[in-house]
Structures
1.
Amino acid sequence: MINYWNKEEIGNGRGECMKNVDLINIASKYSKDDNYDFTGYLMYKDKEIAEIKDTEFMKSLDDSLLPIIMINKKLGCFESWLQTRVIDTHRTNSRQIRRRLSVRTEVPKEIVIKARAVSITDNYWLKWDNENITYKEVRGRLSDGLNTVALYGNAIESNFTDLDISPELTNIGSFEKCWKLIDGYWYMIKKGSYKENFAEVLVSNIALELGFKAVKYEPIDNGTLVKCRDFTNSGEVDFEPMFSFVKDYWEIDDSVRIIEELGYIQDFLDITFIDALCYNIDRHTFNFGILRKDGEPIGLAPNFDNNLALSGVLNDKALEKTWYSTSFTKNNYKPILEEYNYNIPKVDFEKIQYIINDTLKDFHTLETEIGFKDIVFKMIKCNYEELL
C-alpha cells in the first residue's frame, strides 16, 4: 500500500518525484501589500469633527456632530461606524463593483475607506492628513457610472473615471440595488422578485393614502425594478439608522424607548401599524431611524423598505395558504400599539381594494394570476381586524 504522505513515493504521473517547493518565497512574491489604514479626519461637511490615526479614533473635535455610534468615543467606535455603511459583500454584484474599483479586500472598513466613507444619505466623509479638498469637491465626484454593474453584474461599458467616487461601496442592504441620478436627484433603484417589488409599491401607496410619512416607491421596467427618491434630498439632512443607538440588528424594545424619549413615538407607531396591517416581518434597526440636521435630531425617518411585507404571498406558494394567519401581528406588533394606546386609524377597505387593483396595473403577471389580489386583500383585512 502506498503511503501518500511520503514524498519519495509521490510522482507527477510520469514516475518522477516532486521537487521541493519554496512556499514562503512564492507566497511573498505574489502577496498584495495595499495599505487601507486611514489617518486624517472624520469630516462633517467642511468641519473636522474627529482625529483618526491608523483607522483608530483618537479624539473628538466636535461631540455634537459625531455619528451616534461614535458619541461614546470608546475604543473601536470609528471602525464600528465604518461597518454600518459598507456594501453587503454577499451580494453577487458587489464583487463586480469591487473588482471594477480594484478593491481586493473583503474587510468592511477597508472597502468604506476606499470610498472616503461618503454616503448619499448623510454628510460624513474622510479627509486624509495634509489633504486640501472641500466637501463640495468630494460630493461633486460622486458618480452613478457603476449603477448597471451594481444591478446586473458586469457591464460592457460604464461611465466612470478613476477620479470618480462610487456611492455603491456604501450602499447597504442584501438586495441588488444602485444609486442613479435622475434630473439632478439621487434615486435608489432596487431589484427584487416580482412579488417583492409589488409589495414595496403597494405598502408605500397604502401608507401615503392613510396620511403617514412614507417614501414613495414606483415600479419601473414593467415591475422588474422599483425606484424611490433619496429622502435626505442629497444630504439636506442626515439619516442615522436605529442600529447606531442599540448596536443590535433586531433590538426593538430599546429602540421604542429611545424614540419615545426623542419625542417621535407617534410616527414610529404609524410605521408599526403599517407593518402589522401589511404583514411585514422585516422591520430591523437598519430600516428605521432618525433624521439629524447639523447634529440636531429633527424627526423620525419616513417609512421605507417594505419589500418583504405581504410575507405570506411573496415567494413560497405553500405560504399563500396561510394568509389568514394573524399570529405575527398579534404577538409582535399589537402589544406595542396597545402599550402606547395607539388609536387604530379607520381604514376604508373599498379604497384598499382600489389601491391593490391600481398597483397591480404595473405588475401584469400578478394582475392576471388567479386569486392573487384576493389573497392580498384578505391578508390586510384580517390583520386589521386582529388589531381592533
Note: The mean pLDDT is 89.
2.
Amino acid sequence: MSPESKQRLPGALIAFGVLLAVGMCIAAFILGTQVRNVGSGRQTISVKGLAEKAVKADHAEWQIGLQARGRTFAEALSNLRAVRPKLDAFIAQQGFGAETLSAGEEQVEPSYIEQDRPNLPPRKVQDGYQAQQTLSIRTNDLNKIAAANKAALEFKAAGNPISYSIPSYLISNLEEVKMSLIAAATQNAQTRAEEFVKNGNARIGAMRSASQGAFYILRAGDSVDTSDYGGTYDRSTVDKTARVVVTVEYNLAER
C-alpha cells in the first residue's frame, strides 16, 4: 500500500462511520414514530346500524278553503260569508261533525292586477278585494277523508269557489315507533361490529358512544340513500315504512 493510500484510509473510515451513525439515527427516528403511532392508536370501532318496519297512518288532516271577491272590503267579506253555508253543507254530507272542524280567521286583502302601459313597464293597480277562509278537518276515519277529497273536485266544478289540499296521513305514536327502531338499529350495529372483528384477534367491548342519525317515514316500497342527518316524513300515503339509522362506537378488547 502506498504512503498516500495509508494517509487517505483513516479519513475514509471516519466518513463511513459518520454516515452509518446518521443512517442509524434516521432509522431509529422512523421506527420510533411508527411504534408511537401504533401504541397511541384508538382501540375502537365505529359502525352504523339500520332498522325499519312497516307502519300505517292512523289519522288524517285535510284543509279546504273558500274565496270570494268584492269591489270593497265589506262586499268581499259579505260575499265570503254568503257562500260559507254551501261549504258547511258539503262537509256535513261527507260525514264530518263539528268536532272534527277547525275554522281559520276570515281574511280580506286588496287584490291587484297588472295594467299595461304604452312604452312603459306594466304596473300593479288595485282591483277590489279578495276574502278567504280555511277550514281544517282532523279525523281518524281515513276513508272519509279520501272520499271527501274526491268529492271536492265535483263540488268545485259545480262553480263553488273553493280550494283544497291533498290529505295528510299521519302517525300518532311516532315517538314509540322511533324508540322501537332505535333499539333494533343498535342491535344491528352490534351485529355488524362483531362481523367486522370476527376474523381478527379482537372482540367487541363496552359501548363507547351512540347517536341517532336520520329518521325516515317513507312511502311503502320506497328507498332512499341512508345518511347520518336529515330524514323525510311522507304524508301522502296510508301505508308507510319507518326507518332509522344510528352510529355506535365500541371499545375493542383482545380475545
Note: The first strand starts at residue 44 and ends at 56.
